[in-house]
User: Which sequence fits this backbone?
């Protein structure tokens, strides 16, 4: 009993910097959204979700990567802390990502553009791994955070597909795969059309929007 309690406490202690990193990156994203809302009358972020990977998922991932299943090896994983940013329109995705990684204390470690290059099953999303400094009593440590940035439509497809196919032991047959892919492509067409309508209705007023952000001096 005491051992289980101590293990739980040890795990929670290891998670502390990751929880802090989530708070830091989430706040940065909220500040970006607030600024754009004020200056461009457009709030690109619909919703931000966050999660700390569960102990079981951590052990499963260590095993998948061929790393010994021990919580002290979590430094080998970059997605213990995860944020999902749901945007209104496709163009918002790249713009938010750029504004975030241009910040001096945000180091980009990895960039996977599954929107420009969707996965074979139709999965679309922009994945970033960044690291941010977290200050604790012992000093500063750089903590990685995985950020998935996608539109409402991409998120709708990915959330359902996650349950239906991605995280199940069930191996989808070709018919199911094609139908899921068809849905993903329809969602992508909807995103394109919604973006066009938004720009047609708002262009005269959104002069600042989607212009390349440049590094601050
Ligand atoms: P969960 O349960 O969602 O957290 P790498 O770390 O680069 O070696 P990894 O982590 O597979 O390999 O990277 P990738 O491909 O960028 O995927 C990271 C996450 O994106 C996944 O986390 C999923 O959340 C999501 N994802 C990737 N591909 C798909 C897909 O085809 N369908 C859906 N619905 N989501 C996907 P986890 O840890 O695999 O799972």
Assistant:
């Amino acid at each position: 009993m005491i051992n289980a309690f101590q293990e739980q406490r040890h795990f929670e202690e290891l998670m502390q910097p990751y929880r802090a990193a989530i708070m830091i990156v989430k706040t940065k994203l909220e500040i970006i959204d607030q600024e754009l809302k004020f200056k461009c009358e457009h709030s690109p972020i619909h919703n931000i979700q966050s999660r700390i990977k569960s102990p079981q998922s951590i052990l499963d991932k260590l095993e998948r990567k061929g790393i010994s299943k021990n919580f002290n090896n979590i430094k080998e994983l970059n997605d213990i802390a995860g944020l999902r940013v749901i945007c209104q329109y496709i163009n918002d995705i790249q713009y938010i990502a750029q504004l975030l990684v241009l910040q001096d204390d945000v180091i980009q470690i990895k960039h996977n553009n599954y929107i420009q290059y969707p996965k074979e099953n139709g999965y679309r999303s922009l994945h970033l791994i960044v690291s941010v400094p977290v200050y604790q009593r012992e000093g500063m440590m750089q903590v990685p955070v995985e950020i998935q940035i996608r539109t409402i439509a991409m998120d709708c497809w990915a959330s359902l597909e996650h349950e239906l196919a991605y995280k199940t032991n069930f191996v989808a047959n070709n018919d199911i795969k094609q139908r899921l892919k068809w849905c993903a492509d329809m969602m992508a067409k909807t995103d394109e059309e919604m973006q066009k309508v938004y720009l047609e209705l708002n262009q005269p007023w959104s002069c600042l929007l989607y212009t390349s952000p440049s590094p601050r001096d």
Q: What stands out?
A: The beta strands are 45-52, 81-87, 107-113, 126-136, 139-151. The pocket of 0O2 is lined by residues 79, 112, 119, 121, 123, 127, 158, 161-162, 166-167 (CB under 6 Å). The chain has a mean pLDDT of 92. The longest strand covers residues 139-151.
